[in-house]
Amino acid sequence: MDNAPHIYAEIAARRAQLIALTQDLIRIPTLNPPGLHYRDICDYLAARLEPQGFAIHMVRAHGAPGDSEQFPRWNLIARREGAAPGDCVHFNSHHDVVEVGHGWTRDPFGGELADGRIYGRGSCDMKGGLAASIIACEAFVAACPDWRGAIEISATADEESGGFGGVAYLAEKGWFAPERVQHVIIPEPLHKDRICLGHRGVWWAEIETKGRIAHGSMPFLGDSAIRHMGAVLAEIEATLYPLLAGKTTAMPVIPEGARQSTLNINSIHGGQDELPEGYTGMPAACVADRCRIIIDRRFLIEEDLAEVKREVSALLERVKAERPTFSYEVRDMFEVQPSMTDREAPIVRTTAAAIERVLGREARYVVSPGTYDQKHIDRIGRLKNCIAYGPGVLDLAHQPDEWVGVDDMADSARVMALVLAELLAG
Question: What Cα–Cα distance (Å) separates residue 291 from each residue in 82, 229, 263, 378?
Fold first, then answer.
């Protein structure tokens, strides 16, 4: 039996609900940092899903980075069982959003609907995807009452700051173990005709150069850590950037520029600490005895993380050989291995077929330039059958006047529901 016409009808009947749900989610300002209103959005979703037969689990990530009594890291997992045993399909969305930033012409938390678009911080990344997955599940259950297996919907914390208070914590506690979940879709905004198979790797580290403090009028009596760092930056420009430009990947990373290894200098700070807010005087005249940079190194599946680190160590040793008083320290912050799901995995093949049926064109396969929560599902949860697929234009994420298209959400909901029909009712 072809369930698609019934599913399409159920989703069409829920179009107004899809819009309202997305607007309601945007209007809960789950800003991260510091982690505002996490429990509020989980309570909102529980109130919607529990009356529809979903068992609700509220999980706080006690002890995770950022978790505190003032800013607890709350996660929701909602599970509905089918009429018979079978696989579990899990839709995982993060509920946190980044800071608003400047340049908005609309209310960032207004959820304004205009010309088929819903505007607001997190609309694209990724409350539109969360709403689409909920509508997809509700439409599928209504259209296919005798389905087997289980459906899970999760709304998780802190993806924007590494996911350690969200999916990483849940994976450590067994929520994504292959014994209880078999298929995962993460509705990140990667365009409705694309399947994201994974992401590049990342290594964040802090490099500190050491110096000796002295009076600024007699810098020759000190040793400037900032000048030492300047030499490090010059060596990065002269040798490391050209080296990385020559490293390319077979991974279908988008955009094109991310198909090579990259390095971003995330921040730099030297000398005395930032002056406290409200202080209007001058800084003291001192030679900087310390300078720090944070590097964000993205690497390819063809690269080895140990070699990635050795490249930086070798660079620093070259600088040291040229500067007799040069001293440095490297501190690892975090690292993530690249991840890429096989194109023949069940969730990939099923989603590709659904995209072709709904949109009338073949799915594109991509890899994300940055990481997302698939890293934790893969490495900690040991679950390889995972992709990112959802509505929204990736370039709009974290931008002012962020928006998600209503038609795109509806199309993505059709795709997600057809995946459910194939895996749980086919």
Answer: 58, 7, 19, 36
3-state secondary structure of 248: strand
Which among 160, 136, 172, 150 is positioned nearest to 4, based on CA atoms? Answer: 136
- In the numeric block, the tokens 């998780």 are attached to 156
**With 90 as the cut, is the pLDDT of residue 112 above it?**
yes
Cβ neighbour number for residue 191 with a 10 Å cutoff: 19
Query: How does residue 274 score in pLDDT terms, banded at 50, 70 and 90?
Result: confident
Cα separation, 132 vs 15, in Å, equals 10
Kindly list the domain boundaries of the chain, sorted by start residue: 4-199+338-424, 201-336
> CB of 411 within 8 A of CB of 391?
yes
Alpha helices in 180-276 (DSSP H): 225-235, 241-245
> Hey, do 4-199+338-424 and 201-336 end up sharing a CATH topology, with the first three levels equal?
no
Residue whose token pair is 């911080």: 121
- pLDDT per position as a tens digit, 52-103: 999 999 999 999 999 999 999 999 999 999 999 999 999 999 999 999 999 9
- In this structure, which CATH number among 3.20.20.80, 3.40.50.300, 3.40.630.10, 3.30.70.1400 belongs to the domain 4-199+338-424? 3.40.630.10
Place of tokens 């924007």: 160
CATH class of 201-336: alpha beta
What's the rounded Cα separation, in Å, for the pair 134 and 362? Answer: 25
pTM across the whole model? 0.91
Query: 335-359 b/e with 16+ CB inside 10 Å = b?
Result: ebbbbbbeeebebbebbbbbbeebe
Calculate the alpha carbon distances from 148 to 59, 162, 219, 424 in Å. 26, 34, 75, 5
List Cα–Cα distances, 379 to 76, 371, 376, 382, in angstroms: 21, 13, 5, 5
